């Protein structure tokens, strides 16, 4: 995620202009770089067919439409578009601070448009980058260059208030609801044949720090919609009053105090960096723009913060010699983890190592907790564990449950069944009395 803050900005139009110009700037840089354009040949199979056309339309658009949020919803409703909420968590954020004289929101929008065009210009005007496009062609859309060029050559992107956007969608039989879906956004872009600014979203849909209209119903905010990626960026003018911010959200007093420490009036936007790469390179699937795919199972800090589903494995341990076992939890943990590593390599070892816990060892019974995603690694190696710290034994999986209580219920039934079996084969009264005493000692409410 790329986030930018523009100081001394209190006009949404200025923020929209900055967003629009930034998009054109990115596309221009791509299209003007011969090396990068040569690399596009190897990206063709991964890109949308009309990718270059989309980029060209963005560059050629004189001005992205400004569509109020309510208009966008109405437009979607008229075009049978369904409105839902969607969000993508961003793990990487790049902050950009821009200091400017006091400018209004409409000028802000124009400046952002120039910013986007500047990115495209730098791409298209660099011969080295354009040459690299030859190797990217198989991953990119066929009309990718046309789309970049259209963004560079278009007049200012249309500004469409949200209310007008909703009306436009409704008039065209699009299904709408609370917010804009990706289908709604794609329709608006296709309708205007260029990137579109949807502005002035309802206050209840935006955060407390955004500047409101005089009646408090709308926000001085925008979303920039582009071909292929739909929502590329979102921005707003910030609320300058600390008192108003405290009224909206009393729990963020520390944030409101920033307004009392000399912070100027400002506006800012956040731009999805992977989405920008997706637009510049014409790659249909955003996953292909991330050089380092993220999975929570491989990130220790995330593992500590996110609650994962657990599985509890009930094991029975039997010694070959028949002697009483005296194993430690650490020994069993190390043996299981190392065996998983032997069978499944470093990936399996790392996956199991972060979530494996030996909860209990009681005689010949052990209870092991693992994450549900790594359960298969542990259960697949259990039959192959025959030695722990020099003690020869074998392990048998009795039960796998979602809670300790479930394992407890199973173990009670299992022990009772064993004892009743011994009771049937007992030959003397002494043996029967001992077994009956053991049966009575097995407690636990079975439901």
From TrEMBL:
Q: Which residues form the Aminoacyl-transfer RNA synthetases class-II family profile domain?
A: 1-293
Q: Which UniProt keywords apply?
A: Aminoacyl-tRNA synthetase, ATP-binding, Ligase, Nucleotide-binding, Protein biosynthesis, tRNA processing
> Molecular function (GO) terms listed?
asparagine-tRNA ligase activity; ATP binding
Recorded hits in Pfam families, A to Z, give: RNase_P_Rpp14, tRNA-synt_2
User: Could you say which residues form the signal peptide?
Assistant: none
Source species, domain of life: Eukaryota
InterPro entries in the record, alphabetically?
Aa-tRNA-synt_II, aa-tRNA-synth_II, aa-tRNA-synth_II/BPL/LPL, Pop5/Rpp14/Rnp2-like, Rnp2-like_sf
- One GO BP annotation here? tRNA 5'-leader removal
* PANTHER family per record: ASPARAGINE--TRNA LIGASE, MITOCHONDRIAL-RELATED (PTHR22594:SF34), ASPARTYL/LYSYL-TRNA SYNTHETASE (PTHR22594)
Q: Which family does it belong to?
A: Belongs to the eukaryotic/archaeal RNase P protein component 2 family.
This protein's name: Aminoacyl-transfer RNA synthetases class-II family profile domain-containing protein
- In its UniProt entry, the species of origin is given as Cylicocyclus nassatus (Nematode worm)
